[in-house]
Design brief:
With 339 residues, the protein is mainly β. It is 7% helix and 52% strand. The strands form three sheets. It has a twelve-stranded antiparallel beta barrel. Strands 3-2-19 form a three-stranded antiparallel sheet.
């Protein structure tokens, strides 16, 4: 399914574009550019997100698996449990999204994810490390997000070139957080859902700089709450800026820079082995990060109202409190139709 979806995206990118007026000012007037909605505007879209996690940091420095295997804290038994180390994690997310402009100023959004997670790991057995082992795949409905944004500023009544939106919403506990593997609860961050109701705050500013350049800055703060097992993921903050360049009437390129912060998780009842410091994938002390990402991308509009986006995200800086497995890179591809 994933392969067919990516093939469809690449095929759409290769299609000859329809001929219509170019430049961001014209895109704004036809509703093709985000941030300038009118009452009754609607959009539907699907995007595919792939994240690879195959490196471990200590503070801001990368640590090899062989060095981790030699570290005393992972070579000991805790409460009858041996140490465990992740080799790699492949995290996929297929996201269905829709938006509706209730008024010229108020836009409501819904996002429904389907999550597919794979992990390869190794464990300490009888005093020595075993062979790398691929866990059973975890997949299922993720946590649905409902948000709304209200336009609090625009510079002109007709064909505005600058807007400010403020908003908020809620992440719902629709995805399960109790998947078991061999009668043991899977690592919290491998679960399809968090099991928690998380409030969200949003802010966005966009500006048409010229017929060729468009700038958008977004901020999202998500407040984590405890799920039914007492586990709480850390609060997250994401602030990003994207500069888009109008290459042609049907194509924009972009370059983004974003800052991501995640607080440490909490597992007071040890529901996910969060108190065992010899297990890198479980211990809450091995969570939380501050990172800076660069994101080149491309947007193609094969016909009016349709947008195809591909983006590559790479962390140019990442710092963690202790040991932690972190994201190596992320790829996102999606199609959106506005009507």
């Amino acid at each position: 399914m994933v392969g067919k979806f990516l093939s469809a995206v690449l095929l759409t990118l290769a299609l000859p574009a329809a001929s219509f007026a170019g430049g961001f000012c014209c895109q704004v007037s036809t509703g093709d550019q985000s941030g300038f909605s009118k009452a009754g505007d609607k959009s539907l879209g699907v995007d595919y997100n792939y994240s690879l996690m195959d490196r471990v940091l200590s503070g801001g420095e990368e640590v090899s698996i062989s060095k981790l295997k030699a570290d005393p804290r992972f070579k000991r038994m805790v409460s009858g449990k041996g140490g465990s180390l992740p080799i790699s994690m492949d995290m996929q997310r297929i996201n269905l999204a829709g938006s509706y402009a209730v008024t010229d100023k108020l836009v409501m959004n819904v996002a429904v994810p389907w999550v597919i997670n794979d992990m390869t790991m190794t464990s300490l057995m009888a005093g020595s490390w075993g062979a790398d082992m691929k866990m059973n795949q975890v997949r299922g409905l993720g946590d649905v997000t409902l948000t709304g944004s209200y336009r609090v500023y625009q510079d002109k009544t007709d064909h505005p070139t600058s807007t400010v939106y403020l908003g908020g919403g809620l992440k719902l506990p629709t995805g399960t957080c109790s998947v078991n593997d061999n009668r043991k609860r899977v690592h919290a961050h491998m679960q399809p859902g968090t099991g928690s109701w998380d409030p969200i705050l949003l802010a966005s500013w966009s500006k048409v700089l010229s017929s060729s350049f468009f700038l958008q800055t977004d901020a999202k703060y998500q407040m984590a709450t405890a799920n039914g097992y007492g586990y709480s993921f850390g609060d997250t903050l994401n602030i990003g800026t994207d500069l888009k360049y109008n290459v042609a009437s049907y194509m924009n390129s972009s370059l983004g820079l974003s800052y991501f912060h995640s607080g440490q998780s909490d597992d007071p009842d040890n529901a996910y082995n969060g108190k065992y410091s010899n297990r890198l994938t479980d211990y809450v002390g091995y969570t939380g990060e501050d990172s800076l990402w660069i994101s080149p991308g491309i947007q193609v509009m094969p016909f009016s109202g349709c947008s195809v986006n591909v983006k590559f995200q790479y962390p140019i800086m990442c710092s963690v409190p202790d040991f932690e497995q972190v994201t190596t890179y992320r790829i996102t591809a999606g199609i959106t139709y506005s009507f």
